[in-house]
């Protein structure tokens, strides 16, 4: 058969740019109807398509797997540029948008139909549109475009500030006519960028400092800081104070006094040292550390009691067993009472623990005296966390403690 005869058979021709071709209904094209000047180029084009169709007869029905694979690692989203780079045309996407299989979130960004709607989808779509060819997971570790300001606070789930327009921080100059995006050109330190849920965003410290600069309402920014101090998040207040340094004079503080502005911000949010400590109560690591400190102090106190009694009850095993039976439920209660601590409230919290342990040891001594009236018990000191009094870090001595010291 003559080679040219193959190209005039309408049933062998597929136009992959027509949306119906992806539904398994080939769109027939007859090159014989084209003008003479275009016939040669058209034949070459169709020759390649015919070869592809011969070896890949299902090429017209692989759009869905391509889109699903793209969206799988991008919150159910993908860009037009990403799809076109994999052979999916705009017509394919438009057709699927019309019948509800795709939903357009932003210019050039789609969400697969059936994917649950998330609160951050619009922000993610805006961020993806800034570099549409690159997959989201490939960009997560870079600082090319970083989410900042109120949008970053929304990603951190802190505060209740409207994130739109989304502030995107870049190292190079960018402009846009979109009303939902605002670019800021700035070089960010590596410690001021974190990845949250696959999005590169400014750290909570950097975010709070930027909001102080952008918004100016310390009560709103204070809510962001208050939310940040709750849960598992650790806020570096020292670093935040440094970041607030350029804005101190604006709020009536001495120039460069970032810590003073930070204190004002904390007061506006109702954050004090005790509140900060309570926010850390849920942290298992600190709770376990404190429990170990107090438990060790209890064991040391019991050793002191037993050591003082040994000369009077040489070889008596029953006393040790009796003490262990009495102390077991108290240790369980002690473990329940132990909470997590911060440096600023270490002294008050440990004072409470000492009082609890004093009560426990005195109760033990009273029970032993009733059971063994002929035994002289050694003097019992107040329980200390280690060999020295409890430290007082960043806190002043309480009035009650001062009164006791004066009585002495």
What does this protein structure show overall?
- The protein is mainly α and 408 residues long.
- It has 4 domains: 3-61, no CATH class; 65-121; 140-271, no CATH class; 284-407, no CATH class.
- It has 16 helices and 8 strands.
- It has helices at residues 36-55, 63-72, 80-84, 90-98, 121-130, 136-139, 149-155, 204-214, 218-228, 237-243, 258-268, 273-279, 284-309, 318-337, 346-371, 399-407; strands at 77-79, 102-106, 109-112, 145-148, 166-170, 181-185, 193-196, 199-202.
- The chain has a 3-stranded antiparallel β-sheet.
- Strand 7 and strand 8 (199-202) form a beta hairpin.
- Helix 7 (149-155) runs antiparallel to helix 8.
- The chain is elongated, with a radius of gyration of 35 Å.
Q: Globular, elongated, flat, extended or rod-shaped: what is the shape? A: elongated
Number of domains: 4
Q: What level of helicity do the residues show? A: 40-55%
* Count of DSSP-assigned helices: 16
Mean pLDDT: 75
Protein name: AbiEi antitoxin N-terminal domain-containing protein
Region (Disordered): 1-25, 380-408
Organism: Cryobacterium sinapicolor
InterPro entries: AbiEi_N
Mind sketching the topology for me?
Blueprint: H1 36-55, H2 63-72, E1 77-79, H3 80-84, H4 90-98, E2 102-106, E3 109-112, H5 121-130, H6 136-139, E4 145-148, H7 149-155, E5 166-170, E6 181-185, E7 193-196, E8 199-202, H8 204-214, H9 218-228, H10 237-243, H11 258-268, H12 273-279, H13 284-309, H14 318-337, H15 346-371, H16 399-407
Parallel strand pairs: 5-6
Antiparallel strand pairs: 1-3, 2-3, 4-5, 7-8
Helix pairs in contact: 7-8, 8-9, 8-10, 9-11, 10-11, 13-14, 13-15, 14-15
């Amino acid at each position: 058969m003559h080679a040219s005869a193959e190209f005039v058979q309408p049933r062998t021709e597929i136009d992959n740019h027509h949306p119906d071709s992806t539904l398994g209904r080939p769109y027939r094209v007859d090159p014989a109807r084209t003008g003479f000047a275009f016939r040669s180029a058209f034949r070459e084009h169709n020759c390649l398509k015919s070869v592809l169709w011969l070896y890949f007869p299902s090429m017209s029905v692989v759009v869905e797997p391509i889109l699903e694979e793209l969206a799988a690692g991008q919150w159910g989203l993908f860009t037009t540029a990403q799809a076109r780079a994999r052979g999916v045309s705009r017509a394919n996407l438009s057709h699927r948008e019309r019948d509800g299989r795709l939903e357009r979130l932003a210019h050039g960004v789609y969400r697969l139909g059936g994917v649950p709607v998330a609160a951050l989808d619009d922000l993610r779509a805006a961020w993806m549109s800034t570099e549409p060819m690159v997959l989201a997971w490939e960009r997560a570790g870079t600082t090319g475009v970083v989410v900042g300001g109120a949008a970053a606070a929304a990603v951190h789930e802190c505060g209740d500030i409207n994130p739109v327009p989304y502030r995107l921080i870049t190292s190079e100059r960018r402009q846009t006519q979109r009303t939902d995006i605002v670019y800021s050109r700035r070089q960010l330190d590596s410690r001021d960028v974190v990845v949250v849920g696959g999005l590169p965003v400014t750290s909570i410290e950097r975010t709070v400092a930027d909001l102080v600069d952008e918004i100016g309402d310390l009560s709103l920014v204070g809510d962001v800081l208050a939310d940040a101090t709750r849960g598992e998040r650790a806020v570096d207040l020292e670093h935040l104070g440094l970041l607030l340094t350029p804005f101190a004079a604006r709020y009536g503080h001495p120039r460069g006094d970032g810590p003073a502005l930070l204190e004002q911000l904390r007061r506006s949010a109702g954050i004090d040292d005790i509140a900060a400590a309570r926010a850390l109560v849920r942290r298992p690591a600190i709770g376990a550390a404190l429990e170990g400190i107090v438990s060790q102090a209890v064991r040391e106190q019991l050793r002191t009691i037993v050591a003082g009694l040994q000369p009077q009850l040489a070889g008596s095993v029953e006393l040790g067993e009796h003490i262990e039976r009495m102390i077991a439920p108290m240790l369980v209660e002690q473990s329940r009472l132990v909470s997590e601590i911060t440096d600023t409230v270490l002294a008050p919290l440990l004072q409470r623990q000492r009082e609890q342990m004093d009560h426990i040891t005195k109760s033990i001594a009273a029970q032993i005296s009733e059971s063994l009236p002929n035994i002289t018990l050694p003097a019992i000191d107040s329980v200390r966390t280690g060999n020295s009094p409890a430290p007082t870090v960043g806190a002043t001595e309480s009035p009650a403690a001062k009164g006791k010291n004066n009585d002495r």
